[in-house]
Amino acid sequence: MLFNRMRYLLISLFIANFYPGVSQGIDYLNLRDSLLVQACGPNDSAVVYNAIRNLEALDTTQITNNLHMYYEDLALRYWLLSADKQYGLMSLEANRKALYHKPESHKALYNLAFQYFHSNDCEKGRYYLMLYKKYAPKKYWDKKQEMIWNAKCNQEVKAQ
Predict the structure, then answer these.
(1) Domain span at 52
(2) Which residue has the higher pLDDT, 13 or 111?
């Protein structure tokens, strides 16, 4: 099954690179399923590392549509390994790249707010939460999570 997905990816990239009529660009959504191998249960580290390798091997200069989603997917996989601080930093950077390509990306804005609150950087967490609320419809707001973050930040201020 993995072999079929890799074969599809290689054939897609070959066609896109060598046939001028097709090389207008690639929509990331057309490649996404072949890059992000899913497990039948919870993702173990092998599945996550495999997805990261597949994503990092992709030539992003060929992607013309939904590049922000590529970076959101990469950020999530890095975050899953963020017990290693380097992966946490890589996740932040990938989310920022997603915002570069789509500044109103709800997913990237929420993830950045979450990551900054998680790392006790309340100022940046609030900043990205404010941007998230600016662009995301109110029905997607998570008031309970926002209260948890605010309580955590208020405790940090009192402790100082």
Answers:
(1) 1-102
(2) 111
